[in-house]
Design goal:
- By secondary structure, the chain is of the alpha/beta class.
- It has a single domain, classed as Aldolase class I (TIM Barrel, Alpha-Beta Barrel).
- It has 11 helices and 8 strands.
- Strands 1-2-3-4-5-6-7-8 form an 8-stranded parallel β-barrel, surrounded by 5 helices.
- Strand 1, helix 1 and strand 2 form a beta-alpha-beta unit.
- Helix 5 crosses helix 7.
- It binds phosphoenolpyruvate.
- The site of phosphoenolpyruvate (PEP) has 13 residues, from strand 8.
Amino acid sequence: MRQAMVAGNWKMNGSSASVSELIEGINAGVGETSAEIVVCPPFVYLSAIAAATADSAVKLGAQNMCDQDGGAFTGEISGPMLKDIGCEYVIIGHSERRAMYGETDEITAIKYGAVLKNGLKPIFCIGETLEERESGVTEDVIGRQIDAILESDGVASLANAVLAYEPVWAIGTGKTASPEQAQDVHAFIRGKIAALDAGIADGLRILYGGSMNPGNAADLIAQADIDGGLIGGASLKADDFLAICKAAG
Ligand code: PEP
């Protein structure tokens, strides 16, 4: 049985005051869900949120990571640093990083390996654009994105990772994949992994991301191969985020 997971990607939002209010609200309600709850604040607030979650079940994730462990890499943050301040998860391959910061399949695979090497767990994002969906190549795109990490780190690496299917056309747009559309892709992903290792596929958590909110979360997470959510906008309001967490378990 896979434990559901809900991860909040706060992106580049917040201030010292607002993130502290947000985490207080989340801490207050986290006892009411059996799902694993992760928050991914901007780097500069990670230590503050680590302190604020020290006595709570909420876990900490980063939104990105350098593939190098240290040295002359101005502006970057390393795996050992994230580990040092108490991170457990790192989002890799988010579509915003692929589209706006030139992260190719090759780069995402290198970062994925670096996250694992540092004893952290990747939340590896994959997803097709609207154009790709409308051209009927969704499975080709998802397959290629997953192949990048399978070729570099092998299927066994997924025992320490989480996948997040995030159709690019649904991220931050208010348009959500229907539960059936999402389930079809999640089943494709699990089937692809199962063809290599049935046990890994069975234990692998595959989150859905893309305008998930308190109104649509339960129907999405009820699907057989959807194990929770990666939440952007709705993770910035404690009540909405907690409602999604409760829908997950
Ligand atoms: C995301 O960016 O990972 C995401 C799912 O965003 P939103 O929930 O705002 O669509």
